[in-house]
């Protein structure tokens, strides 16, 4: 009887110890940073344009929500927006809102798309003046001039990246002004 009790106690203690070890392992794993999810929200380049009297550059992208749930950004504090540098294969560390900012309050319903703008603190200073016209042909011509200017004057700019820290979403905003 004592032997059976000792075996039962040992078995119970072993199961309890394994349970504690499993909980410790799960807790440790949960504390590790999760990898960035690059597929839930994807982006395609739409166009580059200028805004305001200083003709500051604006890059437009189409964000696509590939999930079955809505995606919402309600605070700029949730986000990190960076430029991507081709030559250095790195992200920029510029944090000035005057240099790089986006329309960061975003809502994209499940399985839908939304337009998103990135404002860059550089002005268009191309040798050819922009027409500023509103006809499609004039806008297309101006956008071609602006794209050529970006390509020539910012050759190391490979695009942008947007990191949403709460969800661990990374949205790569590719170069499209080639």
**Describe the biggest sheet?**
4 strands, antiparallel
Q: Give the amount of beta strand, in percent.
A: 35-45%
Please identify the structural class as seen in this structure. Answer: alpha+beta
Query: What gross morphology would you assign?
Result: elongated
Task: Detail the topology: elements first, then pairings.
Blueprint: H1 2-31, E1 41-51, E2 56-65, E3 71-73, E4 79-85, E5 90-91, E6 100-102, E7 106-108, E8 113-123, H2 136-153, E9 157-164, E10 169-174
Please provide a brief summary of the model.
This protein is of the alpha+beta class.
Annotation keywords:
Immunoglobulin-like; alpha+beta; 178 residues; 4-stranded antiparallel β-sheet; 2 helices; 36% strand; 2 domains; elongated
Describe the structure in your own words.
The protein is an alpha+beta fold. The protein folds into two domains: 1-32; 41-174, Immunoglobulin-like (Sandwich). It has two helices and ten strands, in the order H-E-E-E-E-E-E-E-E-H-E-E. Strands 1-2-8-6 form a four-stranded antiparallel β-sheet. Strands 5-4-9-10 form a four-stranded antiparallel β-sheet, with no helix packed on it. The protein is elongated. The model has no long low-confidence stretch (mean pLDDT 88).
């Amino acid at each position: 009887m004592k032997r059976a009790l000792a075996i039962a106690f040992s078995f119970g203690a072993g199961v309890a110890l394994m349970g504690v070890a499993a909980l410790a392992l799960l807790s440790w794993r949960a504390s590790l940073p999760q990898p960035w999810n690059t597929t839930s929200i994807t982006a395609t380049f739409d166009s580059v344009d200028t805004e305001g009297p200083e003709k500051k550059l604006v890059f437009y992208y189409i964000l696509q929500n590939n999930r079955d749930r809505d995606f919402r950004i309600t605070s700029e504090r949730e986000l990190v927006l960076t430029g991507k540098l081709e030559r250095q294969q790195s992200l920029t560390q510029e944090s000035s809102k005057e240099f790089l900012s986006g329309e960061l309050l975003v809502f994209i319903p499940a399985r839908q798309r939304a337009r998103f703008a990135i404002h860059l603190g550089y002005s268009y200073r191309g040798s050819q003046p922009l027409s500023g016209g509103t006809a499609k042909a004039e806008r297309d011509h101006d956008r071609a001039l602006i794209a050529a200017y970006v390509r020539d004057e910012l050759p190391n700019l490979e695009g942008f990246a947007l990191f949403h820290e709460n969800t661990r979403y990374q949205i790569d905003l590719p170069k499209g002004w080639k």
